[in-house]
Amino acid sequence: MKTIGVLTSGGDAPGMNAAIRAVVRTAIYNGVRVLGIEQGYNGLINGNIKEMQLSSVADIIHRGGTKLRTARSEEFKTEEGRKKALNVLEVFGIDGLIVIGGDGSFRGAQKLNELGLPTVGIPGTIDNDLGYTDYTIGFDTAVNTVLDAVSKIRDTSTSHGRANIIEVMGRHCGDIALYSGLAGGAESIIVPEVGYEVDNVCKKLLKGKNRGKLHSIIMIAEGVGNASQLGEEIEEKTGIETRVTILGHIQRGGSPTARDRILASQMGAEAVNLLLAGETCKVVGIKDNKIMSMNTNEALEYERDLDQEMYKLTKILSI
What we know:
Strand order of the largest sheet: 3-2-1-4-5-10-11
CATH topology of the largest domain: Rossmann fold
Low-confidence stretches: none
Largest sheet: 7 strands, mixed
Number of domains: 2
Oligomer: single chain
Mean pLDDT: 95
Structural class: alpha/beta
Strand content: 15-25%
């Protein structure tokens, strides 16, 4: 294999730059040329491709976002669009492709592999919603970003004696809410895998108020329901003044944590090693603190299960 392409696709995640850096430097160390594809599959179709050198990835390991930028591509979802992408790869002499992104990005790589191109995927998504791996790149940073917000919100919540609902990302996976809620001492954690009953949330708030608690934090994942509506119901049922904070895309930004930088570096290097070893249609992950790989088709069949023991612990600690 003489030339490897690398792209980032879908939502950006802190640590993607560290993964790009590892891909480029590991490939060059092994005498392999690297081409960076800008703006994901959309950029691939349009030939937005440039050669990357060691200097191309200097001073980026600590930066959020993605140097290669990202975009979604409706055209790539079509058979004609994928054939066009494959033609572009052939024109540039790209022998294998590394895709950094989530499940949608992996499905794109899977389709290219079916057309004969060796591919390896690196999990880059803050939601931590890929079931085959314990953690995805960007998740740890997102949790710490939420935790920082919780600390600030708690200060003003205590001053006013309010309840605060904090909405975090996670349409189908509640890991950000679960981890940041446990670390931040939230009274209630609401995730899509479990759901909630308003009366139970209210009872917990009133119990806390009756024993002199000055504030309450309710963590809710965006996929569960309407945070503003929940706030109105809580005020109506309890009389406790309730404010809603929707953190939104602030969770995607910021300098990646040490954990995300290390994970991304390890995964980026392993992705290159897999291609050089002749492996194809693979995704990299981490299990039991060890970097591993798996067939893409098999990995995409895994469903992400909520950590029930951790969820149970949040119930015990928030009484």
